[in-house]
Design brief:
Helix content is 44%, strand content 15%. With 251 residues, it is an alpha/beta fold. The structure holds 2-phosphoglycolic acid (PGA).
Length: 251
Amino acid sequence: MRKKVIAGNWKMNMLPNETIKFIDDFAPLVKDSEAEIILCVPYVDLFYALLNTQETNIKIGAQNMHYEEKGAYTGEISGRMLKSVGVEYVIIGHSERRQYFGETDEIVNKKLKAAFEHGLKPIVCVGENLEQREKGIAEDVITKQTELALEGLSKDEVKDTIIAYEPIWAIGTGKTATSEDANNAIKAIRNKVAKLYGKAVAEEVIILYGGSVKSSNAAELFSTSDIDGGLVGGASLKPEEFAKIVNYDKQ
Ligand code: PGA
């Protein structure tokens, strides 16, 4: 049985004082959850988030990293730096990074490899845009993105990668993929992993759905055969709402 993973992606939101308040309110609400709970916070909030989640069941992640370890890359943060302060997870290749910051499949692959080199657990995002969906090529797009992102990783590394399927048209729009569509897309990704790395790896790899997940649709999405949890943006900014998503099976 794969463990459920519920990750919040705060994007460019929340100040340190808001981070502290959020965790004070959120931690007691999710303390009995068996899911892996991850908060991916802005760099400036990492210290506060790590400190305030000590002795809780909440793990902390970053939202991006550079693939180089160090050097003349003004404004960038490396995997080594993240690891040194106690970060466990890192989101890689979010569609907003691909769209607004020119991240290619090749860069995503380099970052994924660098994350493993530094002992970070990557959450790598794939997803089609509306045009690709309307053309009927969504499955080709997401399976190709998956293949290119994972290229050159060992079977063990692939097993330890969290993949997040996030259709771009569903991110921040209030439009959610139906649970059936999302589950089918995730099945296609799992089949691709099986083809490339074997069935055992595919059975273990955790694949999340992301795109307008909220407390009212979490249970339906997360109860399907292949969706192992969610990567949650907007709804992860409110402690009560995000706790309801984490506790989707206890309502
Ligand atoms: P959303 O964002 O939940 O606000 O749609 C999800 C994401 O971008 O990870």
